[in-house]
């Protein structure tokens, strides 16, 4: 089926004609196979302007349509491909629209052939004149430009437009694309074909022919994701106002926000853009991603280094030696930023929100503006909220309201006559299941209260079709059986007392990628299945061994002996590397997790295994204190990382050992501990081993066994949960901002 992407909303000068042609293209390809873009991002050394309309057609190849929304009387004369005008059209008195389209088609064809490894690809170029009929043109210029492909206002019907495209001679010749080549072309034009590949170092082969974990990891890493239209929509579109992105763990939220950041800069190099996140260990990952997308889009001509005067990669708080989002805005207002030791006791998030609230009050009292940025993109949005009223600002979440106030309003001509009082580009991504501190879900109403009407305006779509809210249901990182286990245990779906948290309707489960049978009435049975297309990690098809295992031990010493033996086997006969391929995550609240972390450190060091604790400067040592620290550190070459869940979030590994499940078992109805279990399991790209000490008489042990025995289909008896995670706004008749 045809798929179309509007990269930036219609409404600017001259765009009404482009909108008309784009809608005509959509109608012409209805029911057929095609991929279309309005203003496909294209940056080259020649500074070729992005094509007005790009069509990928398996029979015709690539077609570039250059739209000129100008009346006939503005064209004085036509000489060859050159048009002389009677008055300026976008500051130009001379046009060469076909040559412009031809150059774009040629460049795009070369890029697509190189990215998709195609032997040949046909490309075409055509000029569209949505304000001029063919009769009027012929009456004025006769046979002139008879060799230039053109489509006129009276030819924008499905049949006539398809005929015009088919009769357009190629700029570059090629044959119709076979199914494999068509798939490759779609990926080359989209995100999936250019996502940075993991480089997996393989050990020397072994004599026996069995597949080691290292071999399976390498095979999985070579797998390319199929074209994902939703990813393209999110990554390539620039909304004219706020947008929220709700995505399950492993759906690629961080990657897409990084690509969106790069696209915004390339298309609007004068914008000041901030990409903000909660976990300091993500600094390197996000910088590398933004740098990759800038280089990929410009053939290496631009990078994060060349864009650093406009793109700011900022930790939510910041420190003396590393500017952060809060500290940047405090400097803007002219106040001394608060430090952690100058805030009330509490979690890291609560301390940050206390500082944000104080900054908002300072700005309000002094009348100083916080406006610094043109766009703010927030990752890990679930960790930047809190339910405590004392941390709110005028019934709004303090961090988000501070971020909203840091934005310059979008220019009036970009509001597209929607009637909205103003708009600001605040874009945030979250997964409520990964919240480790607060149970508040960062929906529009939770963030802005009654101000949601002002922030979002009416309707679920911006003009042109860009959505104000996106839900990502496809998990690329975590294999399907592992993600199913993570959701089941994190929500307590099979616990004897009934589910603790979760979605309470079919639409909600379908939105995050599950097939659902049954009704959500108390006492009714519900069946969940995760189809393979929503969990495209191919590892389950490469091995028959279970990806999630569990073992109860009589005491911690026994648990740690088993952990050491398992890691030695991974690093030995299974051929894995200690860093980035093996990760140990410890559970527990506060000091509990750090106590288990210290025990794991001692056990691994006794076996002469390299160990790294996140935030340390050095390896093989207990937790270090400032200044012997590296707050951004999470991995060290040659060492296995041992991390609490709070620091592991946002990172991933091929094998994840979750230690200390007994800490959850003693308070199995504790929602934050259940969320810890979900986050820990969902860090895995492959295998997960759960372990605990003294679980024999604990209900959680039997619950885990029931979940693992369920395979790829989970059946549970529905009971209303304590924490509803529904997105009611998308099924409600209330205004979108009221509950979404």
TrEMBL record:
Pfam families in the record: NERD, UvrD_C_2
Residue span(s) of domain NERD: 14-128
Region annotation (Disordered) ranges: 525-544
Domain annotation UvrD-like helicase C-terminal: ranges: 640-690
Organism listed in the record: Deinococcus hohokamensis
Keywords noted in UniProt: ATP-binding, Nucleotide-binding
Domain of life according to the entry: Bacteria
GO molecular function: ATP binding
Protein's name according to its UniProt entry: ATP-binding domain-containing protein
């Amino acid at each position: 089926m045809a798929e179309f992407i509007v990269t930036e909303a219609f409404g600017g000068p001259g765009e009404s004609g482009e909108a008309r042609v784009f809608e005509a293209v959509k109608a012409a390809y209805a029911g057929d196979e095609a991929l279309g873009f309005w203003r496909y991002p294209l940056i080259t050394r020649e500074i070729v302007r992005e094509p007005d309309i790009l069509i990928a057609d398996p029979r015709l190849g690539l077609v570039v349509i250059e739209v000129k929304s100008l009346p006939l009387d503005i064209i004085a004369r036509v000489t060859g491909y050159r048009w002389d005008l009677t008055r300026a059209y976008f500051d130009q008195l001379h046009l060469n629209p076909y040559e412009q389209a031809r150059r774009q088609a040629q460049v795009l064809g070369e890029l697509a052939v190189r990215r998709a490894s195609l032997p040949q690809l046909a490309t075409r170029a055509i000029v569209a004149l949505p304000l001029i009929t063919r009769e009027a043109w012929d009456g004025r210029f006769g046979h002139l430009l008879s060799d230039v492909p053109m489509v006129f206002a009276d030819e924008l019907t499905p049949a006539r437009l398809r005929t015009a495209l088919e009769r357009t001679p190629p700029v570059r010749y090629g044959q119709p694309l076979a199914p494999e080549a068509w798939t490759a072309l779609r990926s080359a034009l989209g995100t999936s074909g250019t996502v940075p590949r993991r480089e997996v170092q393989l050990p020397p082969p072994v004599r026996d022919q069995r597949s080691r974990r290292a071999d399976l990891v390498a095979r999985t890493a070579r797998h390319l994701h199929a074209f994902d239209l939703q990813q393209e929509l999110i990554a390539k579109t620039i909304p004219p106002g706020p947008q929220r992105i709700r995505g399950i763990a492993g759906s690629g939220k961080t990657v897409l926000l990084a690509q969106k950041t790069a696209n915004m800069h390339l298309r609007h190099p004068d914008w000041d853009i901030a990409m903000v996140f909660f976990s300091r260990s993500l600094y390197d990952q996000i910088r590398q991603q933004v740098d990759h997308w800038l280089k990929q889009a410009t053939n290496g001509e631009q990078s994060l280094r060349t864009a650093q005067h406009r793109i700011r990669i900022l930790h939510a708080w910041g420190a003396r030696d590393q500017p952060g989002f809060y500290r940047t805005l405090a400097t803007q207002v002219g106040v001394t930023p608060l430090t952690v030791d100058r805030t009330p006791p509490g979690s890291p998030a609560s301390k940050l929100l206390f500082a944000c609230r104080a900054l908002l009050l300072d700005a309000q009292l002094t009348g100083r503006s916080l406006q610094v940025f043109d766009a703010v993109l927030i990752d890990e949005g679930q960790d930047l909220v809190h339910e405590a009223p004392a941390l709110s600002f005028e019934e709004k979440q303090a961090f988000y309201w501070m971020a909203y106030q840091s934005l310059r309003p979008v220019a009036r001509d970009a509001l597209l006559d929607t009637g909205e009082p103003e708009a600001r580009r605040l874009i945030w991504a979250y997964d409520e299941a990964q919240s480790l501190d607060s149970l508040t879900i960062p929906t529009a109403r939770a963030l802005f209260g009654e101000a949601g009407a002002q922030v979002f305006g009416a309707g679920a779509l911006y003009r042109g079709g860009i959505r104000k809210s996106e839900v990502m249901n496809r998990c690329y990182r975590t294999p399907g059986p592992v993600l199913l286990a993570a959701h089941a245990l994190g929500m307590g779906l099979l616990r004897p007392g009934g589910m603790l948290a979760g979605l309470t309707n079919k639409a909600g489960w379908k939105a995050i990628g599950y097939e659902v049978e049954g009704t959500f009435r108390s006492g009714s049975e519900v069946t969940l299945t995760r189809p393979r297309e929503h969990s495209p990690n191919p590892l389950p098809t490469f091995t028959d061994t279970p990806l999630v295992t569990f073992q109860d031990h009589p005491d911690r010493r026994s648990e740690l002996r088993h952990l050491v033996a398992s890691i030695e086997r991974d690093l030995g006969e299974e051929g894995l590397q200690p860093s980035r391929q093996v990760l140990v995550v410890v559970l527990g609240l506060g000091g509990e997790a750090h106590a288990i972390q210290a025990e794991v450190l001692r056990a691994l060091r006794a076996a002469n295994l390299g160990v790294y604790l996140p935030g340390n400067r050095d390896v093989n040592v207990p937790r270090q204190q400032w200044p012997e620290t590296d707050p951004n550190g999470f991995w060290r070459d040659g060492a296995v990382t041992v991390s609490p869940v709070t620091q592991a979030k946002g990172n991933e590994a091929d094998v994840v050992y979750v230690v200390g499940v007994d800490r959850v078992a003693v308070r199995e109805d504790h929602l934050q501990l259940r969320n810890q279990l979900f986050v820990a399991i969902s860090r895995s790209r492959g295998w997960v081993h759960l372990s605990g000490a003294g679980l024999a008489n604990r209900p959680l042990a039997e619950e885990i066994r029931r979940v693992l025995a369920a395979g790829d289909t989970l059946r549970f008896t529905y009971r209303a949960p304590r924490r509803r995670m529904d997105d009611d706004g998308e099924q409600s008749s209330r205004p979108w901002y009221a509950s979404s």
